[in-house]
Amino acid sequence: MRIRDRPPGPEKAQAAEIVLFPSPRDALGFSEDQGVGMKLYRIDKLARLGGAIIKRKHILATSDRAAVERAEESDDCPICDVTHNGEKVGEVI
Question: Are residues 26 and 49 in the same domain?
């Protein structure tokens, strides 16, 4: 049934029928003052400091610091660069 084909009824009942799913922000529990929850970072495992990239991994983190901490905790990362939007935000040595 389309919205315009519905029989007349209380406004509250019609609004409840129209909203089937919450917005992604509401579903994840974000409030307006929290801003964007996660950002995409890339961790590049290096052969040596300033050397060739051996492996790339993408992660989600709330901040630059959190992304670097996740890289430090990784067993796969003895020497790594952490980038966001093409800019280096940290490294693990």
Answer: no
